Amino acid sequence: MEPVSVGLVGAGPWAEMVHAPALAAGPHTRLAGVWARRPEAADELAGRHRAPSFERLEDLFEVSEAIAFSVPPAVQAEIGVLAAKAGKALLLEKPLAADLDGARRLADAIGEAGVASQMVFTFRYSPATTAFLDRARELGPFGGYAANISGALQGGPFATPWRLERGAVLDVGPHMIDLLDAALGPVVSVRAHGDPLGWVGLMLEHANGAVSEASLCMAAQGELPPARVEVYGREGSALLLGSELGDDVFATVAREFADTVRRGGGHPLDARHGLRLQEIIADAERQLG
């Protein structure tokens, strides 16, 4: 297939570490250009990958078949609607938006435009996760547990304003809820307690009667274990560790996105899936106050 030309919105740390190199590496995608709210950051990142930078979003749209996002959730929701209306396929970060209204507007715009969308739920693009989910479904699962504990709010490149304000539920919650949802069946309700800027516990009920718990924290210190998901059932158990994901996750993201754009038919991790997870997150945040 001809490489899909993908414009990148955002030039922060995650765009620098992941999106730009993965999209520029090919062979399935080509970095068509970069736009960011800070033009100097866009210039630097684009130049590093021999791509142009743009001061106007419309000019980035003009040279791109698809748009990838590496910006705060509220910005993704706003610009994503514009990209969808311009007829561009969207590669979206989690969460879909900063709030449920923004997520609905973006998902609706994508649906109305009839463009492809795909979300970067990092864990889901690893062979280790595929094997874990295959095993989990064989177990007759009735329960599970997930934990994602880090010190990201203590400082570093990901202590960004939206994370410092909203904390673990909005940031790492989508990953853990998505994995439990995939392993145990659709989540139909959530009960939440704790502090998003400290420690949060979620109890999830699944459509088939299974129950799971998730522990989320981004305020820990010291040596911390990798993220983990465990599933238990009548035929045994399955375990996934974040340390098992491997180094080719983002190359797989780029390949699957190119396939989604070229062949059509959608992707299971599309904006509608992201909206369903955002509904669960919004309910949890409402309970936490």
Structure, described:
This protein is an alpha/beta fold and 289 residues long. The protein has 2 domains: 4-121 and 248-268, NAD(P)-binding Rossmann-like Domain (Rossmann fold), CATH 3.40.50; 127-245, Dihydrodipicolinate Reductase, domain 2 (2-Layer Sandwich). Helices cover 43% and strands 24% of the residues. The protein has 11 helices and 11 strands. The chain has helices at 13-25, 39-48, 57-62, 73-85, 100-113, 127-138, 161-166, 168-171, 173-184, 249-263, 271-288; strands at residues 4-9, 29-35, 66-69, 89-92, 117-119, 141-149, 187-194, 199-206, 211-217, 228-233, 236-241. A 6-stranded mixed β-sheet has the order 7-8-9-6-10-11. It has a 5-stranded parallel β-sheet with strand order 2-1-3-4-5, sandwiched between helices. α4 packs parallel to α5 (100-113) and α5 packs antiparallel against α11. It is globular, with a radius of gyration of 19 Å. The mean pLDDT is 97.
**Radius of gyration (Å):** 19 Å
Tell me the strand percentage band.
15-25%
Low-confidence segments, ≥5 residues, pLDDT <50?
none
How many structurally independent domains?
Answer: 2
Q: From the 3D coordinates, which CATH architecture of the largest domain would you assign?
A: 3-Layer(aba) Sandwich
The general outline is globular
Question: Which CATH class of the largest domain applies here?
Answer: Alpha Beta
Q: What's the name of the CATH homologous superfamily of the largest domain?
A: NAD(P)-binding Rossmann-like Domain
CATH topology of the largest domain: Rossmann fold
Please list the strands of the largest sheet in the order they lie side by side: 7-8-9-6-10-11
What is the residue-mean pLDDT, rounded to a whole number?
97
The total of helices stands at: 11
The computed structural class is alpha/beta
Main sheet makeup: 6 strands, mixed
